[in-house]
Amino acid sequence: MNCQQCQNEVDALLDDRLDPPAADAVRAHVASCAACADALRDYKAAWAAFATAPELEPSSNFVARVMNAIDVVDREQPAIRWMLVWPRFLRLATAGAATAFVVSVASLGFLQKQTTLAMLDQRLHHDLLAELPVIEHLEMLKDLDVIRHLDQLSPTVDMEPIEQMLQEILST
Amino acid sequence: MPLDPDAELMLKVRRGNRAAFETLVTKFQKPVINMIFQSISDPIEAEDLTQNVFVQVWKTRSRYKPTAKFSTWLFAIARNMCLNEARRRARHRAESLDQAPKEGADGMEQPLQVADRAALPADDAALRCELHRQVEAALRMLPEVQRTAMMLLRHKEMPYEDIAKVLGCSLSATKSIIHRARVTLRIRLKPYLRP
Q: Which ranges constitute the DSSP H helices of A33-159?
């Protein structure tokens, strides 16, 4: 073991966290190295001074003060305390019921919107169909180009050119 | 794996058991107040902040999970409160929690002013008293993370792994923090230690 390795192990040695063979290796090095022996002695003395320095003592009524403080907290937060002491299944049931309620309200709203749209759509179709001109002999015209354009027609389209075209076709 | 006895008590606290909470407060009041005192330097404020730590434990008891030791959780709360207090003081331009080492004109930290050993009182008790005063001063001059690590190490020699959890560092970083703190303490206290 060299000095650097010894320095690396000093903390573990001081805190009794070295396994016996490693501790023996450090001690063997320290026994043969004056610099490391000095350093280890200083580390030990500094740690001892730190570990034995007097500590601050809490006042004798400290625990009572804390217990009084949590009384105040509990009085100020009764709702939260109530939630905390609730059994887990009751909390889960409440959360489930709340979720179900929100989902139901959202679903109802969605269904209502869909129904309204469907009714409006149906009404529009009905009105458009009622206003579309009735074209007879469609079976005769199925191969003609005009059929392909029928879907583009609207009640506002001028039907006269189409009728003329039909007349020409029928006359031939 | 058997549960940490303090964690068992805390599980009772989670169910609202006040007697279990009182037991934990009695057990941990001293290490917590001392850890905070090393940051605050004012015993009265340290006690108030310690009280807040335990009130916080009570308020957040429902969030406690026995995956870690209770002491690790408690000291992490205490450290967060210390850091918050430091930030609050800094915002209010009050005296800093960390009495940072004085810097010279070149921005470098000045060496600790130490008394000449020959000038120290010969009396043993007085010498010890002076040594303890110097230990306290040296601790306060450590960076917050090193000071906290040393205080946790002092508390029943908490394992490095638990100290790492409180500090939110890796195990190797924690070992390095502890080593640097020890080196600094050794240098600062050397003039006051017996040959």
A: 34-52, 62-76, 78-85, 88-131, 138-141, 145-150
